[in-house]
Amino acid sequence: MKTKITHGLLILFLFVSGSTYAQITFNQSDYPVPGEIWAELSDSRTGVHTIPGAGASQNWNYSSAFIVDDTTVLGFILPSSTPLAWASNFPNATMALWDVSNNAATYLRSASNGIFLDGGYDASGGQPVTVLDLNPDQLILPAPFTYNGTRNHNALFTVEQPAQLPNPGVLIKLYFIQNFTCNAYGTINTPIAVNASVLRIRDFTYTIDSTFLDAAGTGNYTFFNSNGPADTSITHYFVKKGPNAIVMEIDEDPATPGNSIGARYYQPGLVGLPENNELQEQVSLFPNPSYGEIITIQVDFEGAEQLRICDVDGKVVRQESIKGISTYLMNSSAFARGIYFYELSGPSIPPVRNRFVIQ
User: Rounded to the nearest 5°, which phi and psi values hold at 259?
Assistant: First the structure.
């Protein structure tokens, strides 16, 4: 799920399907659904992850190729679960990714011909910004899509700064010219699983940045200049059929074909983590992320009697009685690196859950 336009905002991704060769086809039934939670484990080293060649019946082994330096939780929710003032700008969105900590949201649109990036809203700077809307939307991955498939798509992002004379108005248009090809399938081995019948889809996108000026403040813009291809990206997606279809991604350096510039693999997480409630706001866990030190959990309400720690697969890795305890100290040095969830419960309170990261 790499960022497509701005850091912390247009995070996105998608997937494809698999079975036997004739049946490895990415369809709308393979899209993620609200309630899914994924762990993204990233390795930003360059030149480490081999860019696979084309062809049938490939065998890709990345089981020992990762040193994870960043872990991110990706939770799909309904657009209505984000601030409604934001969601109202994207009436066609079917899903959203809401980054609460950075006060940003990304809106996705699923259709029979693919998953699209509808746009986003970023208020991380403290002041709400103009909604970031793509029209046409940016294609994440096409559907239906299978081996030897190709698809071209153009998207447009526009941002306007109206004139405040004597300063002219500025209109910037970013054109995304995309080409998708699926020229390989096979078996892939990641650090957590072996997956057969996996498609490899290559997304080649370049961006043309054009600037228009309104010198008179009349709202009429004239062409000023174009930077040409301002940015070029190549991403290889490894996808299988069914839920949590994305397996791995590799970014390729457009300036040095065949050289990787980072990779990510994905681990499915818990489904249906409840939305924030007022009790969640009265729990603090720090440091988060943790680097194997003591974690402090501060509970500022009464009624919590049990604490459970689960990994992303839902397995309970620690359970403690905390009745009458408001500050709980937990040594995280024995925990493996990854995403974890805590749950506070008691007979007089609803379950209180949230997530944290061990780096």
Answer: -100, 125
**Which is it for strands 55-61 and 169-189: parallel, antiparallel or unpaired?**
parallel
Neighbouring C-beta atoms of residue 216, cutoff 10 Å: 12
Q: Residue 217's CB: how many other CB atoms inside 10 A?
A: 14
What whole-number distance in Å separates Cα of residue 206 and Cα of residue 344?
47
- Rounded CA gap, 355 and 353, in Å? 7
CB 123 within 8 A of CB 89: no
Q: How far is CA 278 from the centre of its chain?
A: 26
Residues 72, 42 contacting (CB under 8 angstroms): yes
Domains with residue ranges and CATH for the chain: 2-268 (no CATH), 280-358 (2.60.40.3080)
Return the half-sphere exposure (C-beta side, CA atoms, 13 A cut-off) of residue 310: 16
Q: Which of helix, strand or coil describes residue 22?
A: helix
Q: pLDDT (tens digit, 9 = 90+) per residue, 66-116?
A: 998 887 777 788 888 788 888 899 999 999 987 755 678 899 999 999 999
Q: Do the Cβ atoms of 20 and 197 come closer than 8 Å? A: yes
Which residues lie closer than 8 Å to 226 by C-beta, 6 or more apart?
A: 208, 209, 210, 211
> What's the pLDDT band for 135 if we cut at 50, 70, 90?
very high
Q: Which tokens belong to 338? A: 């990854």
- Measuring CA to CA, how many Å separate 142 from each of 136, 149, 203, 253? 14, 10, 10, 22
Q: pTM of this prediction?
A: 0.72
Location of structure tokens 């009436």: 91
* All residues at 6 or more sequence positions from 246 whose CB lies less than 8 Å from its CB, including other chains: 1, 13, 14, 15, 38, 237, 238, 239, 266
- The residues facing 150 across adjacent strands are 181
Query: Beta partners for 244?
Result: none
> What does the pLDDT look like over 189-243, one tens digit per residue?
999 889 999 999 999 999 998 999 999 999 899 988 876 556 899 999 999 988 7
